[in-house]
Amino acid sequence: MQKGTLEYEQALNAVEILRSRARQGAVSIPYGDLSSELARLGHHVPAYEGPMPYVLEDASVRETPDGSLPLLSALVVLKDSG
Description:
Oligomer: single chain
Strand order of the largest sheet: 1-2
Helix content: 40-55%
């Protein structure tokens, strides 16, 4: 998956997953769980390599281009340390 491709743009469904978590009171989600949720939607985004950091960055920027809202990517955490 490459940034700028249709596949990448569709993987930005991460925004909806994170937005849903935020509505639940900012419930964090481990990288692996987010990767699994994206996989259920048909998007291969490995938890610890490849496009994951770019997807999270772009999802956050799209949600708040001017930086006035908290970054949704902050909800994504390491499973062991939270």
